[in-house]
């Protein structure tokens, strides 16, 4: 039994729903067209195909794309020692998908983490609360439009945060700028990070203006 | 010959006897029959009370908080709260180059930083497609690092566990050996705690002269220490009473909750990523995977003890077979070129510059790499859109997943068993909260 055979069995069971298997670095990935069918597919994978261990569920924010979010399930079977990755899309407007906690109980905390970090809701989850951030925190920090420095937040008598002093970091050069200041900006502005670099560099002036109204620290002008 | 006497009997002055009332053993038999998916009980009835354990409590090994609902001394409901050590490592990773993130991996499972370094480096190398092209010397040294980290982590796990259930000596005893591992780390990496030893495609430096001899000396000492630790605990009546039959996790529940590492093997699942999906040179090394039978706290303890012995065995083999040669992949686009060549040659200078400022140019794609860390399966899921920084880096940390079973496991136990169960899980909040 190898992952490709298992993937083909899964596809045969749900015709038209699962795209061709993609292989990269000897890992098999299947894209599921409809997030609503995930519990059904997962239950079949667990009961019939022996994927008894859910390694992980995670989410990816493809900011600027539509649908915006990608949910990634890593499945594993102790019987056949095969990995399988399932992926499905969730759009920003919809923002929810059914839970798989009824299939694997370990999905509970993984789904809570996705809700906490990306703001996607899992319908039918028994206890969908924040897990790493505190109850009442208003933002979803792993979204691409959330700044690295954080946003000032005040939840009275619970906790508070301020934007972090980044001391100029992070120092990752973005290729293609016309000068050092463009290539290594002192402050990276998350709204624009996901956009194309060159277009971003041309709009530097506009960004600076927009940034003045946001909560983050203002760009640090280079000293002459 | 004296008559055999019941020690619970009281003999009065007139010769009459009566039996002293026996204390009822109050460990409940129904363990783990609680369903966390059931709706929360509305309000507390009768005698129930809520007890807050942690987040700052010695038995919670960091900043775990558990809200317990108690009926007398019996736990009826447990709600673990994590996140007090959340630092946003995954967000940071998205804004750093792959190499820049290596020091952050030290801070995941901070009791085994070397193993985290290796796990992360292997994940990025898998993305780059060079994980099978690492020089043999690099692979052997990485295995040594992983196993030293495992010994270090288990020594602490066992020592703290013994202290949690009341045996102070063991902690001091195992910490003496851990100190030697820190000395080895210091001479190997330059740091005792925050090692940041690996690089993408290799290691930050080769073994210093005389290191293998020091390491062998340590291995010979640690096996003695492990045996002595066992004499403290394994047949210690108090320790056995506090751990046997407590925190029983059946095989199927362990799998359902995604437990990994010694916690999974303690429940009798024979699964070790070093055997099931050998990376580095684990397929060339001889070692056994210990498994438990009962799935209780005692079995998890025994598995850790045996894993340390197996790790010693692995390190011995690695030091015996340690090949010479380079420690880095011979590719200037991945590993920083030697400094003398950077300063004298154009191509190396360019590689150095690009590597430092933009990072390794990874192909677009996504990979998951699971590494057998001391605490369980430490996995990295990297989603790359190309370039020097990951688009998304998810850390699948074993402690996070292992702790999620607590709401199922704790109800039905006595309050005093909480420390016994928590200690047997050997979790680290740095890794849980990321």
Topology:
The complex is a heterodimer of chains A (224) and B (434).
Chain A: H1 3-13, E1 22-24, E2 27-32, H2 38-47, E3 53-61, E4 69-76, E5 83-90, E6 96-98, H3 107-118, E7 121-123, E8 153-155, E9 159-161, H4 180-183, H5 190-193, H6 197-202, H7 204-213
Parallel strand pairs in A: 2-5, 6-7
Antiparallel strand pairs in A: 1-2, 3-4, 4-5, 8-9
Chain B: E1 9-11, E2 17-19, E3 49-53, E4 65-71, E5 74-81, H1 89-94, H2 102-106, H3 113-128, H4 136-164, H5 168-189, E6 198-199, E7 202-203, H6 211-233, H7 237-243, H8 251-256, H9 262-266, H10 273-276, H11 297-321, H12 339-342, H13 346-357, E8 362-373, E9 376-387, E10 392-396, H14 398-403, H15 406-409, H16 417-425, H17 429-433
Helix pairs in contact in B: 3-4, 4-5, 4-11, 4-16, 5-6, 6-11, 11-16
In short:
The complex is a heterodimer of chains A (224) and B (434). With 224 residues, chain A is an alpha/beta fold.
Give the averaged pLDDT of chain B, no decimals: 85
Mean pLDDT of chain A: 78
The name of the CATH superfamily of one domain in chain B reads Cytochrome-c3 Hydrogenase, chain B
For the biggest sheet of chain A, the summary is: 5 strands, mixed
What gross morphology of chain A would you assign? Answer: globular
* Order of neighbouring strands in the sheet with most strands of chain A: 1-2-5-4-3
* Uncertain runs of chain B: 1-5, 20-37
How many beta strands in the DSSP annotation of chain B? 10
Q: Strand order across the biggest sheet of chain B?
A: 3-4-5
Q: N- to C-terminal separation of chain B?
A: 67 Å
CATH architecture label of one domain in chain B: Orthogonal Bundle
Q: How many distinct domains of chain A?
A: 2
CATH superfamily of the largest domain in chain A: NADH:ubiquinone oxidoreductase Nqo5 subunit
Backbone CA Rg of chain A: 21 Å
The CATH topology of the largest domain in chain A comes to Beta Polymerase, domain 2
Q: Count every helix of chain A, treating DSSP H or I runs of 4 or more residues as helices.
A: 7
- Assembly type of the chains comes to heterodimer
Briefly note the structural class of the backbone of chain A: alpha/beta
């Amino acid at each position: 039994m190898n992952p490709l055979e298992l993937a083909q069995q899964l596809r045969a069971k749900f015709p038209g729903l699962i795209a061709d298997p993609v292989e990269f670095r000897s890992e098999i990935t299947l894209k599921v067209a409809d997030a609503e069918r995930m519990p059904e597919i997962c239950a079949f994978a667990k009961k019939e195909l022996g994927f008894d261990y859910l390694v992980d569920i995670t989410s990816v924010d493809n900011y600027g794309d539509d649908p915006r979010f990608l949910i990634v399930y890593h499945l594993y079977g102790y019987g056949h020692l095969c990995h399988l990755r399932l992926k499905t899309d969730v759009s920003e407007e919809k923002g929810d998908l059914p839970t798989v906690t009824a299939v694997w109980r370990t999905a509970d905390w993984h789904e809570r983490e996705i809700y906490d970090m990306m703001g996607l809701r899992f319908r039918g989850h028994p206890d969908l609360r924040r897990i790493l951030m505190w109850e009442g925190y208003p933002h979803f920090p792993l979204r691409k439009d959330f700044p690295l420095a954080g946003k000032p937040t005040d939840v009275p008598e619970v906790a508070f945060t301020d934007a972090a002093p980044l001391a100029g970091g992070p120092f990752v050069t973005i290729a293609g700028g016309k000068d050092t200041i463009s290539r290594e900006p002192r402050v990276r502005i998350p709204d624009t990070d996901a956009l194309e670099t060159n277009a971003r560099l041309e709009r530097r002036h506009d960004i600076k203006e927009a940034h003045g109204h946001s909560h983050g620290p203002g760009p640090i002008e280079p000293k002459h | 010959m004296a008559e055999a006497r019941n020690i619970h009997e009281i003999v009065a002055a007139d010769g009459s006897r009566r039996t002293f009332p026996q204390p009822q053993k109050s460990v409940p038999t129904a363990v783990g029959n609680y369903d966390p998916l059931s709706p929360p009980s509305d309000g507390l009835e009768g005698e129930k009370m809520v007890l807050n354990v942690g987040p700052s409590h010695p038995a919670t090994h960091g900043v775990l908080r558990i809200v317990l609902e108690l009926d007398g001394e019996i736990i009826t409901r447990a709600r673990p709260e994590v996140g007090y050590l959340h630092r946003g490592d995954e967000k940071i990773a998205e804004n750093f180059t792959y190499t820049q993130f290596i020091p952050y991996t030290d801070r995941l499972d901070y009791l085994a930083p070397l193993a985290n370094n290796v796990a992360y480096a292997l994940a990025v190398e898998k993305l780059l497609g060079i994980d099978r092209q690492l020089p043999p010397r690099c692979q052997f040294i990485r295995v040594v690092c992983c196993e030293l980290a495992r010994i270090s982590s288990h020594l602490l796990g066992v020592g703290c566990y013994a202290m949690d259930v009341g045996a102070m000596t063991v902690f001091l005893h195992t910490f003496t050996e851990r100190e030697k591992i820190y000395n080895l780390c210091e001479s190997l990496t330059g740091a005792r705690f925050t090692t940041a030893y690996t690089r993408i495609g290799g290691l930050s430096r080769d073994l210093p002269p005389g290191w293998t001899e020091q390491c062998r000396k340590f291995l010979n000492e640690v096996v003695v220490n492990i045996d002595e630790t066992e004499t403290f605990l394994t047949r210690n009546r108090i320790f056995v009473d506090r751990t046997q039959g407590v925190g029983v996790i059946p095989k199927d529940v362990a799998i359902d909750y995604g437990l990994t590492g010694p916690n999974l093997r303690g429940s009798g699942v024979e699964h070790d990523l070093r055997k099931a999906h050998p990376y580095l040179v684990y397929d060339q090394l001889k070692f056994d995977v210990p498994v438990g039978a009962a799935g209780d706290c005692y079995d998890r303890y025994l598995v850790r003890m045996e894993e340390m012995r197996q790790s010693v065995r692995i390190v011995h083999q690695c030091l015996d077979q340690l090949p010479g040669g380079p420690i880095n992949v011979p590719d200037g686009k991945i590993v920083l070129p030697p400094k003398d060549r950077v300063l004298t040659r154009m191509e190396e200078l360019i590689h150095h510059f690009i590597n430092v400022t933009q990072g390794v140019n990874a192909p677009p794609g996504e990979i998951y790499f699971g590494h057998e860390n001391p605490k369980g399966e430490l996995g990295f899921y990297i989603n790359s859109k190309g370039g020097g920084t990951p688009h998304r880096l998810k850390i699948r940390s074993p402690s996070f997943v292992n702790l999620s079973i607590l709401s199922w496991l704790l109800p039905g136990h006595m309050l005093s068993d909480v420390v016994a169960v928590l200690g047997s899980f050997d979790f680290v909040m740095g890794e849980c909260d990321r």
